[in-house]
Amino acid sequence: DADVTQTPRNRITKTGKRIMLECSQTKGHDRMYWYRQDPGLGLRLIYYSFDVKDINKGEISDGYSVSRQAQAKFSLSLESAIPNQTALYFCATSVGRGAGSGANVLTFGAGSRLTVL
Amino acid sequence: AQTVTQSQPEMSVQEAETVTLSCTYDTSESDYYLFWYKQPPSRQMILVIRQEAYKQQNATENRFSVNFQKAAKSFSLKISDSQLGDAAMYFCAYYGAGSYQLTFGKGTKLSVIP
Q: Rounded distance, CA B36 to CA A42, Å?
C-alpha cells in the first residue's frame, strides 16, 4: 500500500456540489499539506497542518476548507465547487521536527484529479 | 514571500545527451533547502535531488547533478546521458526554515528524443 493515499483518484462533479478529497498516511508524519496543480502554474499550497490542532492557510485557501481528523488523516473540502477549481490536487506529508532533520522532504500522494462542470 | 522562477516552459534533449534545466529563486532567508521534483505522465511527484543552502558542494544523484550558485540565487539541474524515462515535468522548489512551506516553480516540460 502507498505511504500517502488519496481518494478519489478522479472525480467529475457539477458546479455547486460539495466535494471532499481525503488523504491518509502511514508514514507517522506530523505535517500534512494540500497542494493544487494547474497547467503552467506549478503547485500552489492550499492548506497545511503541523498537528491535529494546528491548521494554517496557504497561498490559495479561498473556496476551500480542511479537517485534520487524526494525525494520519487530512481532508480537503470544496463547499460549493466551481469550474475554476478544476485541477489536480496533491496531499503531502513530512516529519514534524526541525528543518534540518527532514521536515523539508515531502512525501506526495498520487494526486486527485477533480473536474467541475 | 519567496518566489521560484523556471524560465524554460519546455525543453528537449536527444537521448544520451546532456541537458540543463534552469531555476532561480528569491529569498531573504539564510537557512533553506532547494529541490528538484520530477512528474512523469503517471503524475506522481518524485524527488530527484535536494540541496542544503549551507553546503557549498553541489548535490549529485547518479545522472542528476545541480549547479548551486548561492550568491546568484540560481539552482540548475543537469541530466547526463538522458534516457527516454527522463521525459517528464520538472519542478524546482524552495523550502525556507522560517516559512516551513515548500514553494514550487511553474515547471519545465522535458522531452527526450530517441
A: 13
Query: Residue B98 half-sphere exposure, CB side, CA atoms within 13 Å?
Result: 7
Nearest CB among A98, A106, A110 relative to B102 is that of A106
Least confident among A33-37, A92-96, B39-43, B48-52 = A92-96
Q: Say whether residue B105 is in contact with chain A using an 8 A CB cutoff.
A: yes
Q: Which of A4, A34, A104 to probe by mutation at the B interface, max B CB count within 10 Å?
A: A104
Per-residue model confidence (pLDDT) at position A105: 86
Cell of A116: 467541475
d(CA A17, CA A81): 5
The string of pLDDT tens digits covering residues A29-88 is: 989 999 999 988 999 999 999 989 999 999 999 999 999 999 999 999 999 999 999 999
- What is the secondary structure of B65-89 as a DSSP string? EEEEETTTTEEEEEE-S--GGG-EE
Closest by alpha carbon to A48, among A104, A1, A88?
A104
Report the residue from A50, A88, A92 with minimal CB separation from B43: A88
Query: Among residues B8, B12, B9, which one has the least CA distance to residue B114?
Result: B12
End-to-end Cα distance, chain B: 41
Q: Report the DSSP pairing between strands B108-113 and B10-14.
A: parallel
